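Before the break, one more example. Copy the sequence into your notebook; we will annotate it together after we see the structure.
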Amino acid sequence: MKDKDIRLTAEHPEADLKHIVKGMARKGLKPVPTKTSISLRVDHDVLEWFKAQGTGYQSRMNAVLKAFKEISAI
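Here is what the structure looks like once it is written out:
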């Protein structure tokens, strides 16, 4: 099939490179564990610093907590 033969629709839009890369990176890995929603109080300046790093700040906060958990287990 050639590019000119591909019809894009709302149901089948053009592929997003980020989505494709995520799928390739996940192949063969264990499923991502589900996350639990909680209410957490953090200092205002800490939250603002994470938010200033851009979108995904909650995931980065989770990564920091996970890293702390892993080094604390040593």
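The chain has one domain: 3-72. The CA atoms of residues 49 and 60 lie 11 Å apart. Try to locate both features in your own notes.
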